[in-house]
Write a structure and sequence with these properties.
It is a single chain. By secondary structure, this protein is of the alpha/beta class. It has 2 domains: about 220 residues, Rossmann fold (3-Layer(aba) Sandwich); about 70 residues. Helices cover about 25% and strands about 25% of the residues. A 7-stranded mixed sheet has the order 5-6-7-3-8-9-14, with helices on both faces. A 4-stranded antiparallel sheet has the order 11-12-10-13. α4 packs antiparallel against α5 and α5 packs parallel to α6. The longest helix has 18 residues. It is globular, with a radius of gyration of 21 Å. Bound molecules: adenosine-5'-triphosphate. The site of adenosine-5'-triphosphate has 10 residues, from α2. Keywords: ATP-binding, Nucleotide-binding, Transport.
Length: about 375
């Protein structure tokens, strides 16, 4: 099960908007790094920002943090323009290069954080994160391992008490154990403070169980956006054998995101427009990694923007051929994994990270049960 609720008081229950981008674009000389980017990120989510190299992920994070100004369109963070005096305090941005001063010690770095963030700094939060990582306070930043440096940078970011935390590749270059620890830290801190997190990553398998919202960029545009459960639930993974040259017509009756045919076997990710008919194939829910890989391999697959990801202040302009929303979900209806469920953990999260509970593939034998 995915991470879901984080308490009645946080953004998820409030229906607030953390980021709203409308027609957002950034051009460097003649080349567009991001184009016509329109989406809404509801508050309180941990959002995976995914896309191939050069898709515009870092550019989007820089625009949202106010480090870069748009060439066209607009982006607002909790209703304010990023980079302004009003917008600055609500967010923290951890860039790819983890901007820390290598000559300072850990203690000096924390003191600098306090000095730069008067009135907002939580020394207790920073020290707890550093202590949990067993980082010596007298160690110089230059001598820290990549994992410890990331932990220190996250300590600085969370101690600012931001409402929105933008993380550019926070898990890159870390070994699997450290990645797991950093992901757990992220989940715990974000849950404790109701922080909205956007994290870009190429580590698709690691995102499962960490993120509950999805924003996929491709060709400088938004290709998928919505609650992870809803986006996954709108698709089916179909595997089996085929007789003719292509996919069985019952499978091809659904919009095909990506299909691989090998001999008489096929594997296809389809966007369900109803139950997948029975046949000599198995139908399952794709994992997040399978779904993302399918979209990354198929750059021309039509976009899918869930109702919760549609901006409230401007209608979504759709490209020809792209159908709105998610089948079976009312427009502007509540997210399927919306408010806290009974049995939520004390920190407000209903479930532990997915990695802890094993596989989630439900295999059905062509009974159309994925519908
Ligand atoms: N300062 C810049 N000047 C010129 N071009 C830039 C600049 N920053 C980014 N670009 C270009 O914009 C495009 C998007 O870059 P961006 O770094 O946002 O992509 P990304 O999805 O984060 O890529 P990666 O996964 O490789 O980090 C790329 O083609 C990149 O070369």
């Amino acid at each position: 099960m995915r991470p879901t609720a984080r308490g009645e008081v946080d953004g998820r229950a409030s229906g607030r908007t953390a980021i709203e981008a409308i027609g957002l674009g950034k051009r460097y000389r003649r080349r567009w790094a991001l184009r016509d980017c329109t989406f809404r990120l509801p508050a309180g989510r941990i959002c995976a920002l995914v896309g191939p190299n050069g898709a515009g992920k870092s550019t989007l994070l820089s625009l949202a943090s106010g480090l870069t100004r748009p060439s066209e369109g607009s982006v607002r963070v909790y209703g304010t323009a990023p980079g302004t005096a009003a917008g600055r305090p609500v967010l923290a941005h951890l860039a790819q290069d983890r901007p820390l001063y290598p000559a300072l010690t850990v203690a000096e770095t924390l003191r600098l954080g306090r000095a730069l963030n008067p009135g907002r700094w939580s020394g207790r939060c920073a020290e707890r994160i550093v202590r949990d990582g067993r980082i010596p306070l007298d160690a110089r930043v230059a001598t820290l391992s990549g994992g410890r440096r990331t932990r220190l940078a996250l300590a600085l970011a969370f101690a600012k008490r931001p409402e929105l935390l933008l993380l550019d590749e926070p898990l890159a270059g870390l070994d699997p154990l450290v990645r797991h620890r950093i992901a757990a830290l992220l989940l715990a801190e974000a849950a404790a403070h109701g922080t909205t997190v956007v994290l870009s990553s190429d580590l698709l398998a690691e995102l499962d169980g960490v993120c509950d919202y999805l924003l996929v960029l491709g060709g400088g545009r938004v290709r998928l956006a919505g609650e992870v459960d809803d986006v996954i639930g709108a698709h089916a993974l179909v595997m089996g054998s085929h007789r003719g040259a292509g996919l069985p017509p019952e499978v091809a009756a659904h919009p095909v995101v990506e299909a691989q045919l090998s001999g008489r076997r096929f594997t296809a990710v389809v966007r369900r427009n109803g139950p997948v008919a029975a046949g000599p194939w198995e139908t399952a829910e794709p994992s997040l990694e399978e779904l993302l890989l399918a979209y990354l391999r198929a750059p021309d697959a039509p976009e899918l923007i869930a109702p919760s990801a549609e901006p409230v202040s401007a209608p979504l302009r759709r490209r020809p051929g792209n159908k709105p929303g998610i089948p079976g979900m009312p427009r502007n209806g509540p997210p399927r994994n919306g408010p806290p469920r009974p049995g939520a953990l004390p920190n407000g999260r209903a479930d532990p990270p997915r990695g802890a509970e094993g596989t989630r593939h439900d295999h059905h034998s062509g009974k159309g049960a994925a519908a």
